[in-house]
Specification:
The chain is an alpha/beta fold and 229 residues long. It is built from 8 helices and 6 strands; from the N terminus they run βαααααβαβαβαββ.
Length: 229
């Protein structure tokens, strides 16, 4: 890995800063709101179904999550829920959009060690305005050569990013917490990837199989990447 890498890209949510626990907290509160209609675990399943049905329309991020909560309320209640209930769901989404940024351990020190030696990039999915807000409030903007807020993370999306960066796959390393989004597509196009597990993962991003690949490393924390570079 260390002989050819010139560009290192980082996922943002749950790689640089905390994100998924906030969504899970909001989802728990949402399920409580609808417990007069269904048990909480059933509400959670209904919400996930709505999210998957709408992912191609809304993409990833808080605003799509809010719309899916509203749609789930309407379906679960057979159209009988009050506007007050919808308003409470919207409030949950707005609270998510105003969460403070809490950097994960080792992030700042790792970026400080890498800056100037490699071209550093953020490559993350999500809502444009929300991800821009989080990056600005994180205090990390100055470390990065380029910020790419992606609608998805498939092979074609990474190829588009590499073309924009004028970077060959063999010179590219991606770090992230999602095997499905941050690791597999990069390996498939000939790049290198490092997985940094996070203790909670959205159901849609979970990947069960153990991965072995000559250009893949499994890390316990972000600062361990220095051992491979």
């Amino acid at each position: 890995m260390n002989n050819h890498i010139t560009t290192i890209a980082f996922d943002a949510d749950d790689t640089l800063w905390i994100n998924e626990p906030y969504f899970q907290e909001a989802e728990r509160e949402f399920c409580i709101l609808l417990e007069d209609y269904l048990p909480q675990h059933s509400v959670s399943q209904e919400l996930f179904t709505t999210e998957m049905q709408n992912l191609h329309l809304y993409g990833y991020g808080v605003k799509g999550f809010m719309l899916c909560m509203v749609e789930t309320i309407n379906r679960v209640s057979n159209g009988t829920a009050s506007l007050q209930l919808v308003s409470k769901a919207i409030e949950l989404g707005q609270e998510l959009l105003q969460k403070p940024i809490e950097l994960l351990d080792g992030v700042t020190q790792t970026l400080e060690s890498l800056k100037g030696k490699y071209r550093l990039v953020v490559a993350t999915k999500g809502d444009l305005l929300d991800q821009e807000r989080k990056l600005k409030n994180s205090g990390l903007e100055g470390f990065f050569h380029h910020i790419e807020i992606m609608s998805d993370k498939k092979n074609s999306d990474y190829k588009k990013l590499l073309k924009h960066l004028d970077c060959q796959p063999e010179n590219f390393l991606m770090l992230g917490n999602s095997i499905k989004s941050d690791i597999l597509p990069v390996l498939e196009i000939g790049g290198s990837a490092a997985h940094i597990p996070y203790h909670v993962t959205w159901t849609h991003e979970q990947h069960a199989s153990n991965l072995e690949h000559e250009h893949f490393v499994e890390l316990k924390s972000i600062d361990e990447i220095m051992q491979y570079l």
